[in-house]
Amino acid sequence: MADIIHLLPDHVANQIAAGEVVQRPASVVKELLENSIDAGSSEIILLIKNAGKTLIQVIDNGKGMSETDARLSFERHATSKIKAADDLFCLNTKGFRGEALASIAAIAHVELKTKQESEDLGTSITIEGSSITAQDTVATSKGTSIAVKNLFFNIPARRNFLKSDAVELRHIIDEFHRVVLAHPRINFSMYHNGNNLFDLRSENFRQRIVHTFGKKTNEKLVPVDEETELLNISGFVGKPEYAKKSRGEQFFFVNQRFIKSPYLNHSIQAAFEGLLPPNKFPSYFLNLTVDPKSIDINIHPTKTEIKFDDEPTIYALLRAAVKHSLGQFSVAPILDFQRDAALDTPYQQQNDQVSLPKVEVNPDFNPFSKPKSSSSSSSSPAWEGLYTGLQSDTSASSNDFSEVQFESDELQSSIFDKDEGKRVQNTFQLQNKYIISTIKSGMVVIDQNRAHERILYEDFLTQITINDTVGQQLMFPLTLEFSTKDLEVLQSLKEQLEHSGFVFENFGDQQTTISAIPAALKDSDVKKVFLQLIDDVHNEVPDFNFSSSDLLAKTFAKSLAIKNGKKLNITEQEFIVNALFACKEPALSLSNKAIFTTIEITELESKFN
Ligand code: ADP
Ligand code: MG
Fold it and tell me: pTM of the entire structure?
């Protein structure tokens, strides 16, 4: 009998593959946007007509393609992103299967225009159902534009299967959300039938969430931030009271890739246990960063499902991190700092048969039951009122702590005696790491390093953005050497650096000469600070359009803050305490962790019962 097995022609194979990769217009949007990101674009424009049924076009300013690559890009298994199977386990790109463009070209009319920066002219290619119908040399700007028209023109069954424009557009916007949230530093805009639906400029993650979902989102967000050996978790969860009836705003990004994971979703749901009414779903926007080697992305054609090496541990870490954040940010406001101190004296308890003091931090805190204390409903942050003196004089500069009144009147007069030896101590240092200080309702334990970072950061930020600081003139100008690339980074920050007190004499060949530096800096620290800055710029911001002042202030603060392990004398301890509570945001460290925690007298008392 004759052999009956034969290889399918390419265009048939492509159509079959397309069935997996391209379910609807939104799938095309996803693939094209991801290709633009992989091409290193800083600006991406999405144009849609009739919910993608007539046109889906993505224009980017990325690296473009050569003429040969432009043709090859539509071949199946043609990719520039991996070379060997091993590469699958250290992926830095969205794509790697090399089948998106081939699939799309098999089921639509595609027009590609692309040009590399180094070239004068670019290439245009038109493809209809896998065959190239035209190719030209064209004048076009750097980057790539791909227009996909008449999707499923050759598969009527699929075309008829498409839903109404409203539904398909909804899917497109969902994909758009996933991509723009994963890449807040990239500019994205989106148009539907000529109307501008989104215009997002490079920003941080929180801003991107707010600009994507609307201003009101801001107040709903609770930061989550956890660094562990296995993974880093950062991002936000929605406050329980804003939970929704639908699963709308739930986003996991693993190494900047949106993924669906019912299992991990469950861990978030578990963290919210007891805080949500039935049938309500919390929002979350969480970035998980893991070693690419510890995940497998190649288990599904659309790459939205991945396999983790150690899923149960990730589940537990995620749940703990979210629980912790919810505790820290939702429970903290019910700490009652305004309570009448007289009621807290132990003598009363001896005389009266009073019931056991209630622990104020209630682990079963439920935001739906009305909070009892007045302070919890007021908008003033929990830390206000810790130090009575500071409320009346918020302008107290960080060095000037003579304004501060501690809660104990007798101690107050002697606190600021010149003679350290005789001073009554209101602060203590624990393990050269924590500063402990008394407050009205108990005590506060402060992480000295995080506190000092916060103080320096706010100080620097004001200096950089508001005042022009006069630096200290150096006796001998300082010449520092850097690589050309690093020097470029410094040069791009020259203006902000000069606001903060630096004076640059020149930027030469791999070196720069500085004649003045901020007063807070020692000249021996300058190189260290600059290197840290360059590092931060590389790590945090892939493109130019970011708040460099913020970064600068953070870097200064990080490199100059006292470290944990340093012994502090009483004056230093008090300085930290007072300057911290004069900060705008004393509770949160620069990486969104707690700077201090309070221990209520009632909590202590309950331990002695
Ligand atoms: P993959 O993304 O998996 O590599 P695709 O079929 O999506 O496969 O794309 C094939 C190749 O075409 C990519 O590897 C890339 O080299 C090139 N390419 C696609 N889109 C762009 C773009 N917008 N800019 C530059 N190159 C692109
Ligand atoms: Mg791709």
Answer: 0.58
